[in-house]
Specification:
The chain is an alpha+beta fold and about 90 residues long. About 20% of the residues lie in helices and about 35% in strands. It has one helix at about 70-89, and strands at about 10-15, 15-30, 35-40, 55. It has a 4-stranded antiparallel sheet, with no helix packed on it.
Length: about 90
């Protein structure tokens, strides 16, 4: 996993509105042959924690075409990455 600082922002559509989000990290996973971006819109969940979203993306196309993660094994891998990041803070 590679963390990159100062990645900037991306704009997503949320509830039909454009929302600017801060990019928190990117990483590549060779098992799934994909690259991922983690970002936040600074919204807070029901437990009082900041929402963090992770999507796959094609680095040749940038962050314009984010891919939803639906594969359960991929979701488990991403959960482990988030836990590792949380433990490193």
């Amino acid at each position: 996993m590679t963390e990159v600082n100062n990645l900037g922002t991306i704009t997503i559509l949320k509830d039909g509105k454009e929302v600017e989000c801060d990019i928190l990290f990117t990483f590549r996973n060779d098992n799934f042959k994909k690259q991922y971006v983690g970002y936040t819109d600074h919204s807070i969940d029901a437990n009082g924690r900041k929402n963090i979203y992770v999507n796959a993306y094609d680095p040749n196309q940038g962050f314009g075409n984010l891919e939803d993660i639906t594969n359960q094994e991929e979701l488990k891998m991403i959960q482990k990455v988030l836990e590792k990041l949380a433990n490193s803070i």
